[in-house]
Every structure is written in C-alpha cells, then in structure tokens.
Amino acid sequence: MSAESSPEPGIPGETGTNGPRRSAKGRRRKPRSEHHKALILMAWTAAGIVVLGGTGAGYLYFKLNGNIKSVDINQALGTDRPTKATGGSENILVLGSDSRSGSNKKLGGGADDGSARSDTAMIVHVYKGHKSASVVSIPRDTLVDRPECTDTKGEKHDGASGVMFNSAYSTGGAACAVKTVESLTGLRMDHYLEVDFSGFEKLIDELGGVPVTTTKNIDDKKSHLDLKAGTHTLNGKQALGLVRTRHGVGDGSDLGRIQLQQAFIKALVDQVKHVGIFTNPKKLYDLADTATKSVTTDSDLGSVNSLMSFANGLKGIGSSKMHMVTMPVRYDPADPNRVIIEKAKAQQVWDALRRDLPIPASATKDTASGEARGVVE
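Predicted structure:
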C-alpha cells in the first residue's frame, strides 16, 4: 500500500547543498554527500518507557531519567505563537538531527565540527481520543521565509526569505525550527521530539530488525544499500540506509526518500507492537536505555514520567490508523533541486488539522511526489 494512500487519519516526517540542476524530466544527479537524518516515532520512544515507571526499579528509573535531554521551547518562543488546540488533539514536531560529532560523524561522514542540522521533519497530529493520527512530512529542500527567532540560549537570529526549511534548525536549533513550522502552518506545536542519528541504528538492532517488502531492487552505493525485490528483515545499518537512500529509487529526490521513510515508519510501528518487549525485561531495558539516550524533547516531556504518560496516550495507534502525507509542494522552476510550497493545497492540510479533521485527498493530488510510492510495503 502507498504510504500516502491511506484513507484514514493517522501518526508519525536533509540539509541540501547546491548541486547540478536536474533534467527536465525531474531526475536529480547532484553528487552531494549523504549526511541524512533518520527518523523518530513516538511508538519506539514509548516502548521502552511505558512499563518501567511501574516496576519499582528505582535505579533504572533514575538512570533513564538522566538519559533524557530537553530544551525549553516555550520560554524561548514566548507568547507570540498560535493558539493551542482544544478538545484533546495534539501537534508534535518530530525532527531528525544530523550531528557532526562523535559516532554520528562515523555514520554520516563529514567533519567532526560539532554542528548539526535537521534532515527529517514531520508534523504529527494526534486526533482527539488518541486513536489515530496524521503525519505531514516537510521536505528539507522546501524554500520558505524563515521568521526571526530566539534560540533556547537566548540568542536572537534574523529572519530570511527564500531559504531552505532546514536552515531554521542549523541557524537557531529546536526553538527556531518550531518557530518556522508554526509560521508556515499557523498550528501550535504542543511538543517537540528530536532523535539522534547513531541511536536509530542501534535501536533497530535491539528490536531484532524490521521486516519490509521491496517491490523493486534498491541499489544505492552512497547509502550502502543493496536490496533485491522481496521481503527482508532489515538490521540497523540496512534500515538507516533505506531511510537515507535517494539515488536508488524514484526520481532521485528528497521527496522519494520521504516516501520510503513513511513506509518504513509503518513497518517499525508494527514491529514494536509484535516484538514482545513487554514480556522480556532485558529487551525492554535495553530499548528504553537506547531510546532515552537518543531523544531530545521539549521540557514538558523531559522526564520518564512525562514520556510515559505521553506514550500511554499513543500506544493504541497502529499503522492502519496513521495517515502519512508529504506537505504539498512543486519543484522550483528556477532550481529543481529545491521545492516550493503549493500554498492553496497546503492550506487545506493546515485547516484540516486545525479543525481536527482528516486531511482531504484533494490537498495532495497532483503535487510533486518523488515517484517512489509503493517501492517499500
């Protein structure tokens, strides 16, 4: 099934550089390095945390609590923000940050300069009742007007017009990324979650791999991925390659990779539900330890208790209740390595989420897709 074709509302999503222009038929050939960010989803962050709060294992609780990093988004952004949703629905901005230091350097390549950028971004709208969710992936190459913002250290950053979406994170971190998303959508982000690059690979291995079916061969030497058409249980390295690949599928664009990411997320959600972590204390702890070390949250979620409560509210959402789309965009005629928001169609998406309604099919019809739909099932 296509990652964007589900009729139901559903949960959850690179820094680009200039490169050679794409051919008229939409294929990209730019030879830039692949420091792509993998993704996070609430289900696997939750999986290792939900039970531990009630086990009475005080040492484990405090150790996990100490793993979690948090940032005070609310203080940085102040009161000039969209109104909070009412009725029990929530919006969560989920980012993958590609750090240039430590083990992330080894996985992503590049200089060990301590810098970071957001290479995966998803708005997750959890509907009232927390039985379903919609996920809107924002292409990193989208040209946007970035608003002036203040980061969590109190430093102010000027706004800019016609810059790539992921420049918000590289400019001012989490707070500026949230500010930019709220400016684009008019939606209040109730929470923020960010995942570490290296933790993704380790977490997949601790889950025992994730089964996926590919309908076509995928061979991308840049992401070290070589899969024949068929069913595979991907280990951490292969899964990281799959969510990073862009040259081996579709039109070679970031949009095609987003479609693979969305399909993989659904497979991962199903795997978390079936892997039996709640009957295996060691697996549960290992997963919780990796997840809490890998995640950065807003300060409201910055403890095991808060994450546990948050996770409990999401654990009933399976892959069949996740409607995943890409923000409506078209290729930029002046530079097809970039995309431009289809404003009227995007507004349909934001209006639907604001009203806690399913995203209409008309919002994403005839928009740029990346041509990788259905490659992974």
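Summary: The CA atoms of residues 148 and 159 lie 4 Å apart.
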